[in-house]
Amino acid sequence: MNNLVEIKDGKLFFDGCDTTELAKEYGTALYVMSYTEIMNRINELKEQFTDKYENTRIAYASKAFCTEGMYEILKKAGACIDVVSGGELYTARKVGFPAERVEFNGNNKLQKEIDLAVEYGVGRIILDGLQEIPLIENACKKFGKKMNIMIRITPGVAASTHDYIVTGKKDSKFGIPLERDIFLPIVKQVIDSEYLNFTGLHMHIGSQLFENDAFLKALNVLMDWAAIIKKEFNADVKEVNFGGGYGVTYTDEERMPYSFFMDPMMELLQKRADEIGIERPAAVIEPGRSVVAEAGISLYTVGQIKEIPGVRKYVSIDGGMGDNIRVALYQAEYKGVVANKANEATSEKVTLCGKYCESGDILINDMLVPASIEMGDIIALFSTGAYGYAMASNYNNNPIPGVVMVKEGKSAWMVKPQTYEQIIQNNVIPDFI
Ligand SMILES: Cc1ncc(COP(=O)(O)O)c(C=O)c1O
């Protein structure tokens, strides 16, 4: 865990705030996001990437955690953002995020989303398939614009992570397969289009990665194709997007500094560009998880405790798969503590389960807790800042919890909790029933 987690008087503190007081003041279930940790990560990215290497950009992958407040932080930090939907575009526009710092990804962008992006004037659209070209051209005609296009490739490299978060292997719904007769006609169409400006290539090989060799292999493949594009069309790849995927600590994983990935990637990029005889392309990265995961903790209140003799003890909380689907979706593992008994010895092994009507609604399978655990205790789960709130659902018509931002002992709402009325606000009863 990061150094913003402390124990004082037996209570868990996060970025200077007593989490048991946060639970009292804001209620549970609750997402808590640390401003300090987010800024630490952004500053690490700047030091080890954008300040160190010229002609580089950080495009935060919004999908990890997208709120107006998060965009405000990134806007002020001078970062770019990667968006993948009309909703993310809308949110960015709402906070006045500079359009040229927005990069639009997605494997099935809808015409109405492309229209939004083109009207807004985003910096780049990352092309993910042949049929997307006329959709972008339609929008360009409509709004009288020419768009910068990067083409997302599927480099055919299998990164070692959970199967659901591998994206760079050959069999993937993302990116364009690197077959000459599929890939090159698409590149040609982009280069020839009066509405499109071919700027470069994009890859994203997977998420929660701790080794750099798959990145380097994929970058080599990408640069092989930059050479082919130069030879076939005399066009330069001016920008390369390495994607995101930099791993974080959930339980015992050892997080690597960004430089562990960036330094060899930048060296390879320069080397390959020299070989091809093009300028070293601009380099862009799209970290999501690694910026926000450890900035988040989730707070819950213990409810029912059920002991099944000889089997296990279930400790139920007032949240679960609706606010954190990652365990059910890809067997993600978390660490947690009883925040109001953080100094007590943890001698009991329990199963931490949610309140949703699925047997798979488990957040931690074997959690060590104090033997005194009881109804009303506050549970804190660590590293829940990425793909938690972002993937939350209203399953069982449970409201999505609010998000509180903390900073050196201060706290404030970032997203207020949903109300029951908001869950059903778009319900309509058809007049024929
Ligand atoms: C295209 C693209 N870029 C960036 C990311 C962010 O990855 P991570 O959150 O692991 O950094 C993803 C995640 O799925 C992605 O699909």
By CATH's scheme, which homologous superfamily of the largest domain applies?
A: Alanine racemase
In terms of DSSP E residues, the strand content is 25-35%
CATH topology of the largest domain: TIM Barrel
Query: What ligands does this structure carry?
Result: pyridoxal-5'-phosphate
Classify the helix fraction into a percent range: 25-40%
Number of strands: 21
Terminal-residue CA separation: 54 Å
Low-confidence segments: none
How are the SSEs placed, and which strands pair?
Elements: E1 5-8, E2 11-14, E3 17-18, H1 19-26, E4 30-34, H2 35-50, E5 56-61, H3 68-77, E6 80-83, H4 86-94, E7 102-104, H5 111-120, E8 124-127, H6 132-143, E9 147-154, E10 176-177, H7 180-192, E11 196-202, H8 213-233, E12 239-241, H9 258-276, E13 282-285, H10 289-292, E14 296-308, E15 312-317, H11 326-330, E16 336-338, E17 348-353, E18 362-369, E19 378-382, E20 402-407, E21 410-415, H12 420-424
Helix pairs in contact: 2-9, 4-5, 5-6, 8-9
The chain binds pyridoxal-5'-phosphate (PLP).
Question: Keywords for this structure?
Answer:
Lyase, Ornithine Decarboxylase, Chain A, domain 1, single chain, eight-stranded parallel barrel, TIM Barrel, binds pyridoxal-5'-phosphate, 25% strand, 433 residues, alpha/beta
Structure at a glance:
Helix content is 30%, strand content 25%. It is an alpha/beta fold and 433 residues long.
Task: Characterise this structure.
- The protein is α/β, with parallel strands linked by helices.
- The chain has 2 domains: 5-33 and 293-418, Lyase, Ornithine Decarboxylase, Chain A, domain 1 (Beta Barrel), CATH 2.40.37; 66-287, Alpha-Beta Barrel (TIM Barrel), CATH 3.20.20.
- 30% of the residues lie in helices and 25% in strands.
- It has 12 helices and 21 strands.
- It has helices spanning 19-26, 35-50, 68-77, 86-94, 111-120, 132-143, 180-192, 213-233, 258-276, 289-292, 326-330, 420-424; strands spanning 5-8, 11-14, 17-18, 30-34, 56-61, 80-83, 102-104, 124-127, 147-154, 176-177, 196-202, 239-241, 282-285, 296-308, 312-317, 336-338, 348-353, 362-369, 378-382, 402-407, 410-415.
- Strands 4, 14, 15, 16, 17, 18, 19, 20 and 21 form a 9-stranded mixed sheet that branches.
- Strand 8 (124-127), helix 6 (132-143) and strand 9 (147-154) form a beta-alpha-beta unit.
- Helix 5 (111-120) packs across helix 6.
- Pyridoxal-5'-phosphate binds at residues 61, 63-64, 82, 105, 167, 204, 207, 243-246, 286-290.
